[in-house]
């Protein structure tokens, strides 16, 4: 009964808050319209400011164009010289060479601004455009490099479609950067709120938003291919890739209306924060795909150590953490300050959790790298021949995925406990409770314990491996999945049987070492047995020389003579020895050769006579 008034009070408070926001929106919209109506007067005031400073607007525009061209030229020239000097060196040297080129261009631009600027305001304006030019060059170069490198290796380099996407996004980014420079210049010269609003929303915000949307929409297929990455890919990655263009467009729409709402409420969001947020959101999946390709090359390279390969894989997670940290700095930090949270304690906890997450990701990727290299050593032609995925594996190739799952589960559990300790949760009662619960499960689930223990001994005895054909007391088929509790067998007709280890019983493994295949032929009683022996020997020699089956043949096909005389016919047997699982193709080749030899030499095969049923007579 007491909760109902409290709920009603909360609902009333929420409705009141919504009403206040609505009133603020109406008041803010009215204020913006009033300010826009005075734009002509603000333009005249801006002209007066230029006249008072003794600066001609047209001369300042010419100086801005001159400084932008000069800084861009210095940046391009210096970066090309460094690129030629570091063409055969590492990525990091080329990266630092680009940073050095940006610093040189920035210093050159500041010197030019000091020489051209007659007043302090003019010099500061030219310095603003110098920074905008450098930031634009770095941003455009980074976006182009990330997007181009995110295309799958199977696609041609450079990709024409990706170049079109880069061109469209570059135009949008360039427009936004020029707009940021223009707004900053107007702010330096004391432009009014109406002129600033008209420039920020009408001349910069709306065109930049439309340019971004058009670039994404016209090149949505290219974005889908780039975000999806190389095959094989996970199911969620494919779904994310297909939905990514729509997600980006929806994000741009929400960002645009949020920016306009904030402007109306009197809390404008900086244009640099908006542009940086859009770039982070658009580029993160492409950056992840690019790093994924780089990490995959490290995984497949035998010259890269396991620790380095795991670090390359962890770089994907580190990039995600960095992007989230940037977004938190741009948006969550001001919100936390406004709500009165202590940033130092929050930042400390977040930093500790980030370190735990990075350490967990590294250990996770160490196990994943060991597993991946074991599977690559097991199936080196996996990418070229998908059928090799189901081929029988060695004992190590069978146990590694199972041990990998156990190790990753352990690492994840320890990481969760570490996070709880970091935020001040006492985990000992939880550990004790889990121990008691596990003990209760052990006593109450004897069947489960039996299955797990039986499976452990089956794997220790190396009774079966992944990809082998086995027969148990209840089913037979190819081993398709091995878990802690059960094994899954795929029958040759497609049925999948899952058998707990405790119910397997006796195992017959048809895929180990070798197999002897025996064949029986019924011929007429007057058949020349010696001729049959010679024909079989010749067939055995021909098959042993066949490159398609010779590798799998261990002992050649040969006759074993007359096995028995039955109803006036001779039963002649023959055999060959082959690798386990490879006898079917050899048997087929033998049967075709025997049929041809019998027909060419006039040997008549006799069908097995039907036995009569005395009781029926």
Secondary-structure map:
Elements: H1 3-37, H2 39-53, H3 57-85, H4 91-116, H5 120-149, H6 160-188, H7 193-218, H8 220-228, H9 235-264, H10 271-300, H11 306-339, H12 343-378, H13 395-422, H14 428-444, H15 446-460, E1 469-471, E2 476-482, E3 486-490, E4 496-500, E5 508-509, E6 514-524, H16 529-544, E7 553-566, E8 569-579, H17 583-600
Antiparallel strand pairs: 1-2, 1-5, 2-3, 3-4, 6-8, 7-8
Helix pairs in contact: 1-7, 2-7, 3-4, 3-5, 4-5, 5-6, 5-10, 6-7, 7-9, 8-9, 8-10, 9-10, 10-11, 11-12, 12-13, 16-17
Feature tags:
alpha+beta, 617 residues, single chain, 3-stranded antiparallel sheet
Brief write-up:
By secondary structure, this protein is α+β, with helices and mostly antiparallel strands.
Would you give an account of this structure?
- This protein has 617 residues and is α+β, with helices and mostly antiparallel strands.
- Helices cover 69% and strands 9% of the residues.
- The N and C termini lie far apart (93 Å).
- Helix 7 packs antiparallel against helix 9 (235-264), helix 10 (271-300) runs antiparallel to helix 11 (306-339) and helix 16 crosses helix 17 (583-600).
- A 5-stranded antiparallel sheet has the order 4-3-2-1-5.
Count of DSSP strands: 8
State Rg.
38 Å
Overall geometry = elongated
Q: Tell me the β content.
A: 5-15%
Structural class category: alpha+beta
Uncertain regions spanning at least 5 consecutive residues? 380-389
Number of helices: 17
Largest sheet: 5 strands, antiparallel
Ends apart, CA distance between termini? 93 Å
Strand order, largest beta sheet: 4-3-2-1-5
- Percent range for helical residues? 55-70%
* Average predicted confidence as pLDDT: 77
Secondary-structure element order, as H and E? HHHHHHHHHHHHHHHEEEEEEHEEH
